[in-house]
Amino acid sequence: MTGPSGRPLPQLTGTNEFFWTSGADGRLRLQECGSCSALVHPPQPVCRHCRGTTMGVRAVSGFATLAGFTVNHRFAVPGLDPPYVVGQVAIEEDPRVRLTTNVVGCDPAELELGMRMEVVFEEVEDVWLPLFRPAAGRDGPAPLPRDEIEPAGIGRMVRPMPTPRKFEDEVAITGIGSSEIGRRLMVPPLALTVKACEEAVADAGLTLDDIDGLATYPGGGSYGGFAEGGVTALESALGIRPTWHNGGPETFGPGGSLIAAMLAVAGGLARHVLCFRTLWEATHNELMRRGTIAGSGPRRVDGSSAWTAPFGATSAAHTLAQVAQRHFHRYGTTRETLGWIALNQRANAALNPAAVYRSPMTMDDYLQARTITTPLGLYDCDVPCDGAVAVIVSAKDAARDLPQRPVLVEAVGTQIIERVDWDQSTLTHEPQVLGQAAHLWTRTSLRPDDVDVALLYDGFTINCLSWIEALGFCGIGEAKDFLDHGKNIARDGLLPLNTHGGQLSHGRTHGMGLLHEAVVQLRGEGGPRQVADPRVAVVSSGGLTPSGVILLRTDT
To answer: Which of 221, 391, 463, 529 reaches 20 to 30 Å from 114, CA-CA?
Structure first.
């Protein structure tokens, strides 16, 4: 049938047209490697399994295993009104291949992970969307497909240090700054950036003329409320004339600009690098609502979004909801488990005047909040806000002459081990946390027990849970017990967590707010939320997308 108009559709290319039009005869087709017969998706010029380059197309049975699903209640796309079910299915002929899809033809309450599914196509203009429904005559649910790399094998994939010299030993964090953080501040984003940068420079005891490097994420480009214009915009405003600069989205998580800056300083390209991150989502969304900023009209979707947007999987929430669902299924985790993270962050935010959400929250408040996409509710999601954070990375020898006691860098973790494609990656845990965490611990003699305060990425509660497990504060699948009643993660617990309120209550500052708070804590400047005598802090940035993790320590 022909679907409703306005639905996001993929841009057809010579590479993907066979997939999006294969439903014309009712057969699902995928790319196949001519050398090893592996199925490859999304289509590539080379097979990642054998590196062969003879690629063809294979018609498959159309049967698959339900590897994840979430009932979307919050997000709407043209032609697809909520609630609708976003799912991931693993193809029977090669379960390493997963498709993002919509699950149709059933009551969502009847769905079970491991259920056998069959393809049914929906024709929309010149595209046949492969949707899936429970297969007729199916048996009970099967075990979920195994990952290419199970958690226990991650450590064996970490590359050894190529040299005994650590760049981390040559750098320090010397200054931090922040603009006001709030909802709908209606302030130009670059003004927020300048405020945070000027505060960080002053905090370090420097002047803007001392700054010879600039770094940011995601850089210049059409990012809506997610950026201020990047290095180009800030340099144009301040006239810094840097000897080194860097900005872009493909880095070590949203806070990856710091690690890039460390490398530049250790390599002698700069002495003092100003790293900054600005968001103005709340104002941007309000201006779109008013019609001051025009939203994008119907268009064809390309890039990685072409494989997900046609099914209404438009947010990281849809993927991470399925990560949470699988964690519940495998390990007995519950919504209350995630709730203890949200409650902890809110309790800490109550002591932070800069936090967006400071009012008390109970477990009942958390559980009764409106559903975003199952099993995630409103308080599982971070707070869109306006604000900027800036951090100065300096050469360690230069830091000794500055007024602030420097915060030193013990180690970083950056290695990608699992697949980067969101719907092709691991099924046992959140992608892009285990590899980076394992890499971190190979670059230091410190261990998880040495960490005094943790600032872990919490764009969603499941992000935070995943980092707790990945970094070894508890085992994989043990977070339910570790987080029970929130005692271990309280400010006086075993692992004081996100002491400023995290992104869940302080505001979505994309990891840079976490770094800012780590420095505050290590300096002992946290006021009523200060942890007792912290010497070591761990900060993570990202997850699901390639991430980074940094271990910081005091200069003692």
So the answer is: 463
Q: Is 548 helix (H, G, I), strand (E, B) or coil?
A: strand
pLDDT by residue (tens digit) across 30-78?
999 999 999 999 999 999 999 999 999 999 999 999 999 999 999 988 8
Q: Are the C-beta atoms of 413 and 437 separated by less than 8 Å?
A: yes
pTM: 0.95
DSSP letter at 294 equals: P
222 Cα distance to chain centroid: 19
Chain centre distance of CA 10? 24
Q: How far is CA 547 from the centre of its chain?
A: 7
User: In sequence order, which residues have a C-beta less than 8 Å from that of residue 233 and are 6 or more positions away?
Assistant: 190, 193, 220
Q: 332: how many CB neighbours lie within 10 A of its CB?
A: 11
Q: Using an 8 Å Cβ cutoff, are 234 and 228 in contact? A: yes
The helix (run of H) or strand (run of E) holding residue 409 is: strand 407-413
For residue 77, list its beta bridge partners. 80
- pLDDT single digits (tens) 193-205: 999 999 999 999 9
Q: How far is CA 36 from the centre of its chain?
A: 33
Instruction: Collect all residues with Cβ–Cβ distance below 8 Å to 164 and sequence separation of at least 6.
Output: none
The 3-state secondary structure of 92-118 reads CCCCCCEEEEEECCCCHHHCCCCCEEE
**174-194 confidence digits (pLDDT tens):** 999 999 999 999 999 999 999
Q: Which two tokens stand for residue 431?
A: 């992608």
The CA R_g of the chain, rounded to the nearest whole Å, is: 24
Could you write out the DSSP letters of every residue in 485-506? GGTTTSTTSSS-B-TT-IIIII
Secondary structure of 199-250 as H, E, C letters = HHHHHCCCCHHHCCEEEECCCCCCCHHHCCCHHHHHHHHHCCCCCEEEECCC
Q: Are strands 453-455 and 536-543 parallel, antiparallel or unpaired?
A: parallel
Dihedral over Cα of 418, 421, 424, 430: its sign: positive
Paired sense of beta strands 407-413 and 545-554, if any: antiparallel
Which element (helix H / strand E) includes 397? helix 396-399
